Amino acid sequence: MIRVMVVATSPVVRAGLSAVVTSNSTTLTVMGSASDLDVLAREVGLQPDVVLLDLSGNLQQSVWEKLLLIQEEQYPLRIMVIVEELDSIDLEMALRSGVRGILPSTSTESEIVAAVEAIAFGLVVLHPDFLELLSVREKVLVPVQTLTPREIEVLGMLGSGLGNKAIAKHLHISEHTVKFHLSSIFQKLGVSTRTEAVAVGVRLGLIML
Questions:
Q1: Stretch (H or E) spanning 130
Q2: In what order do the strands lie in the sheet containing 50-54?
Q3: Contact 93, 130 (CB under 8 A)
Q4: Is 2-137's fold the same as 149-203's?
Q5: pLDDT digits (tens, 9 = 90+) for 64-88
Q6: Among 56, 9, 54, 50, which residue's Cα sits nearest to residue 27?
Q7: CATH code assigned to 149-203
Q8: For the chain, what are the domain ranges?
Q9: CA nearest 112: which of 11, 8, 19?
């Protein structure tokens, strides 16, 4: 079972999201809930697989700072956030803070459940409207160096959540060669992690999630 921690200021929203998780999936279970990030920090020792975080009306910079602190000092989280305004999200800061999925508050129950399940398996989930916003914001952003077709192929597999061993098997190459490609991708895109590489790849239109 995938263990989910629900975090929302409103008791009604907490109850609603908990019901969404438990009623629409046989693989998800709510192992706890929290009213704010301070409570989450105290409960994170329960080691949830995914944190379902409602940020409606609460997108202060301190949110990302608190999440980043939890990430660095306590437990690495995979976080699914629900927001009212997609264009208010700082993607780079969100990813650094452990966010692996972003959906609007208008999302359906099935969309939320599917996103939580995907994040639990290592994928990054961004709503199509958010990707459109990114393409508008970053249309002047171009990579310093062009990725090769093979590097784009590897990047696409990263976006699918595959590890080095799986990528090597799919491409019939050694894991050492995969690491070489990853190093080149990171350098060309100016990133330092797999998640950042995927995010930049999406923003540049190199891959689709």
A1: helix 128-137
A2: 28-34, 2-7, 50-54, 79-83, 99-104, 125-126
A3: no
A4: no
A5: 788 888 877 777 788 999 988 777 7
A6: 50
A7: 1.10.10.10
A8: 2-137, 149-203
A9: 19
pLDDT score of 65: 80
pLDDT, tens digit (0-9, with 9 covering 90-100), for 30-53: 999 998 888 888 887 888 999 999
pLDDT at 5 (0 to 100): 94
Superfamily of domain 2-137: Response regulator (3.40.50.2300)
What distance in Å separates the CA atoms of residue 149 and residue 162, rounded to the nearest whole number? 18
Contact yes or no for 133/86 (Cβ under 8 A) = yes
pLDDT of residue 144: 47
Could you read off the pLDDT of 154-183 as tens digits, one per residue?
998 998 888 899 999 999 999 999 999 999
Place of tokens 């929302």: 8
- Residue pair 207/156 in contact (Cβ under 8 Å)? The answer is yes
Reported for 137-144, long-range contacts at CB under 8 A and 24+ positions apart, including other chains, are 138/203, 138/204, 141/203, 141/204, 142/204, 143/188, 143/189, 143/190, 143/200, 143/204, 144/188, 144/190
Give the whole-angstrom CA distance, residue 132 versus residue 204. 11
Predicted pLDDT of residue 143: 45
Is pLDDT of 102 > 50?
yes
3-class SS at 151? helix
CA 24 to CA 82: how far, in whole Å? 17
